[in-house]
Write a structure and sequence with these properties.
This protein is of the alpha+beta class. It has two helices and seven strands, in the order E-E-E-E-E-H-E-E-H.
Length: 108
C-alpha cells in the first residue's frame, strides 16, 4: 500500500489483481480497476507556459506545477491529479505496477 498523501488521505495500491485508488479529498478519483484492463501507468508533469519557455531557452529546470497519474487502459485513459502528493512514492508505485503488467503480458 502506498500512502502518497496523509492529509487528506490519498492511497494507491495493488491488491488481488486490482489497482485500488482511494482519495479522500476527491471522491471521483476513487476506483477499483482490474489489472487486465490496464496497459500502463505514467506520471505526467505539467509546467506553466512561462516556465516551459524559460526551460527551453535557458536549460533551467523548474519543479512541475502539477503532476498527474495517467492510467492507460484498453478503452482510453484516466488522469488523476496528484496535488500535494509524495511524487517519489508515486514513481516507485508506477514502476512496480508496470512490472506486474509486463509479467502478466509475458504469461499470456
Amino acid at each position: 500500500m502506498a500512502i502518497i498523501r496523509k492529509n487528506p488521505l490519498f492511497e494507491i495500491y495493488f491488491e488481488d489483481g486490482h489497482l485500488i485508488i482511494n482519495n479522500a479529498d476527491y471522491r471521483k478519483d476513487n476506483s477499483v480497476i482490474d489489472i487486465e484492463n490496464i496497459q500502463s501507468l505514467e506520471l505526467i508533469s505539467n509546467l506553466s507556459f512561462i516556465n516551459k519557455i524559460i526551460e527551453v531557452m535557458f536549460g533551467l529546470n523548474f519543479p512541475a506545477k502539477s503532476n498527474e497519474l495517467r492510467i492507460n487502459m484498453e478503452n482510453g485513459f484516466k488522469n488523476i491529479l496528484l496535488t500535494d502528493c509524495d511524487i517519489s512514492k508515486v514513481e516507485l508505485l508506477i514502476s512496480e505496477i508496470n512490472q506486474i503488467i509486463i509479467k502478466k503480458s509475458d504469461f499470456q
